[in-house]
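Data availability excerpt. The first of two example chains:
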Amino acid sequence: MATAPRPRTTTRDPEELGRRLTTWLTARLPGAKAANVTVPESNGMSSETLLFDIEHPEPPLTACALRLAADPAAYTVFPVYDMPRQYRTMRLVAERTDIPVPRVLWLEEDPAPLGAPFFVMERVEGRVPPDVMPYTYEGNWLHAASDQERERLEAASVGLLARLHDQVPLPEADFLTLPGEGSPLRRHVEAQRSYYAWVIDGLSCSPLIESAFDRLDELWPSDEGEAVLSWGDARIGNVVYDGFAPAAVLDWEMAALAPREVDLGWTVYLHRFFQDLTASFGQRGLPDFLRRDRVERRYAELTGHTPRDMDFHTLYAALRHAIVMLRVAYRQVHFGEVAVPPDPDTLILHHGSLRAMVQGSYWEGPAAGR
C-alpha cells in the first residue's frame, strides 16, 4: 500500500545507543544497566523511540521508553525538536487532567550522551492501532474487532480530546503559545507556512499546497473560538489501548495553543487518510468508524461546544499532513529511495483528496462522513 519503499526511520545504531544509554543511566542510578534496548518497528520518522529495561538490584522501575530528538544529520522531518517542551507538556497534562499519559522520569538536554536531547518515561503496556499496514486494512486487532468494540474505542478517544481541552488551565499552558502576531489560529497557520517554506527551500514547490493555503484564507472562520491546549497529533495511532480503553496518550511534539477544532479536524482527517488509502486498494476499510458527523456530535455532547467551520479545519489538517508528507518524500529523494517526479504534487500520497478539499467537493455525498 505504498508508492515507494518504506522510508528509513533512523540512521543510528541501536547497539551503540544502548551502550551510551547505560553509561548515562549509571550516572543517575549507580549500578543500573540499560537492558533489552530495542527500536520498535513502529518507530516514526520524527523523534525516535527506544524501549529498554532497567536492570538494578533495587529498581524503582524496569520498563521504560526513551524519546530521542531526530538525528540532525539525517534530513529531519521537522526543523526543531524541542524535547524540554514535550517533557513539560506531558507533565502538565499529567498533573492537571485525568488523561492517561506516561509518567516522565528524566529530561536530558545535553546532546552529548546520545547525540541529541531526550527524555525517559515509563513504558505503558497495551496495543496501538497500526499505521503500517493501516488499522483500516484487514489483518489487525482493530479491524477484527466488533462494531460495538470499535464504538467503545471511538467514544473513549473523542473523550480524551474533550477532557484535554476542558481541563488544562490555559495560563499554565502559556509556554505553548506559538511565536508571531495575531490570534492563536493565525499563529498556528503562519507556523505551517514557515514550515512549508523550510521544506521546499532549494527544491520544487507544491502548487497544490499553495492553493490549499489560499483556500484556507477564503474559508477563514468568522469566529475562531477559544484557544485550548491542542494535542497537535490527535489520532488513535498515538494512543496505547488496554482492550478498547485508552491507557496512554503519546506524541506531544506538535502541541500548541489553538482552537478546539484543530485537534478535531486532525482526528477526523487522519482516519480518512487511512480509509481513503484502503478503499483505493479495493478494500472496504472502516467507513463507519470515526465519521466526521459522529466525532462532532460526541464532542458537542461531552463539552457543550458544537464544532464549527469543520470544512476549514479538515482542509487545514489535510494541508498540514501534506507538508509533512512532502518533507518525507524529499527525505526519500535525499537518501536515493525515490526520484522527483515531473509533478511534485504527486509526491503527496493524498494529493487527490487534498485537491478535492480545495475544490470543495470532498465532503459531498451521503458516504462522505457527514
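And the second chain:
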Amino acid sequence: MTTTLLSTAAELHARTRAGRRAVVMTMGALHEGHATLIRTARALAGPDGEVVVTVFVNPLQFGAGEDLDRYPRTLDADVKLAGGSGADVVFAPAVDEVYPGGEPQVRITAGPMGERLEGASRPGHFDGMLTVVAKLLHLTRPDVALYGQKDAQQLALIRRMARDLNFGVEIVGVPTVREEDGLALSSRNRYLSPAERRTALALSSALFAGQDRHAAQEALRARAREVPATRARAEALSAIGESRAAADAHAVATAVPGGPSAVRAAARQVLDEAARLDPPLVLDYLALVDPSDFTDIGDDFTGEAVLAVAARVGTTRLIDNVPLTFGAAS
C-alpha cells in the first residue's frame, strides 16, 4: 500500500478521516516487533480506518550519558517497513514541531510509579516519556494507541496517565515479540557483538526459568485443590501410589517461602550464572511486581504480576519481562 510521509501536525489534521485512527508510537529503527504493533493497529482500525506510525527520537527520554546521539535514525527503511505492515501514514516531526518553544516548561510527572525500577535507574526518563506521549496523542488525535508489553512499566504509566487525566483514547498493549533464540526484539540489539548477544540471552532465559517454576507451582496447587479431604479418596490415592504426590501438592500449595519467592529464586540463579560469563551480564534489577503500581509482591499475593529484568552487557542496556498470574481460579 502507499504510505504517506508527513512532518507537521497541520498536514495530519488536514487528512479526511472516515473510520477509527490507530496510532503506533516509535522512535524509529523499526523491526518486527514494531511491525507486529502496526499489523495489530491495522486490524483494530479496520479497512475504513487509518493507521499512523509516529517516528520521533524524543530528547527528553535520554539522560546524561545515554545514547541520544548514537540512537539509530533509519527513516527511509522505517517508512518501507511501516507501509509493508499496513500503515497509512508515517508522522516524523522535527524536534521544533513537537517542542516549538524549546524544552517544555510544563511536563507530565510520572509520580511514585515512575520512580521505581526503570525510573530509579534512569531518573526523569518516565517524565520525558509521558510528556511526549501526551504531546503525540494531542498531535495525532487517535481513537486507539498501541504499545508493546516489552516496555511493561511504560505501558502501565501510559494507561495510568490516560485514566488519571481523562485522555479520550483506548490504550492497547501488544505482547512482546522475540527472536528465534528468545531475545526480545529491540533496536538496541544491533549494538551487541556476537559474544555479548550470547550473554544477553540470559535475560530471557531467566524469565523463562521463573515462568517455568511458576507454571509448576500453579499446576501443583491446582492438583491440590482437586484432592478432597475424604477417607475414601485418601485410600484410593494410596492404592494407586499417589498419596505422596497429593501430599507434595498440598505442601507446595502452602509452602513459605514459595510462590513469588521461588519464582524470583529460579530467575536469579540464571542471572547469577550469567554474571560469570565473558563478557559478564551486569544486573540492574530483577523484580516481581504488581503491574498496577510496580511495587514488589509478597508470597501471599494473588492476581496478575510482571517478572521484569534489566541488565547491561558491554555498553548496551536491555530490559525484558513476562506476565504471570498467581492463584488462578480452580
